[in-house]
Amino acid sequence: MAYYRKIEEGYDCVFGSRFIKGGRVEHYPPLKLFVNRVVNKLIQWLFWCPFNDLTNAFKAYRSEVIQDCGPYRASHFNITIEMSLSALVRRYHIAEIPIGWKGRTSACRN
Question: What is the reported pLDDT for 110?
Answer without folding.
Answer: 58
